[in-house]
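pasting for the record
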Amino acid sequence: MSNTVPVSTKLSPEGVIAELRTVRSQIDEMSPLSQDQRALLKERLRNHPPPVAIIASQAYTIGSQLAKDPAKAVLLPHVEEVKRLKGFARRKKAAPAPAPPPKA
């Protein structure tokens, strides 16, 4: 087995279009989503946090559990910093100061 990397060739705009048409011909026909299907999809996406947020939440949970062990006390400052930042992110933004009335 060789470890050679395939050489990429640059395509002209016409070549790109030809490749896209080839790929498109290999995909089964799909009908567009109905209004109800789109609304359901948007609702589902709105209720799910992005994958990075899930991973970060899991890492924070694991870190805070590990930090309880005195042998892993080095993690405590990191966990406390994340906890502080999470609290900061949850704060409501201050209302902007009202604009002064225009001078006559």
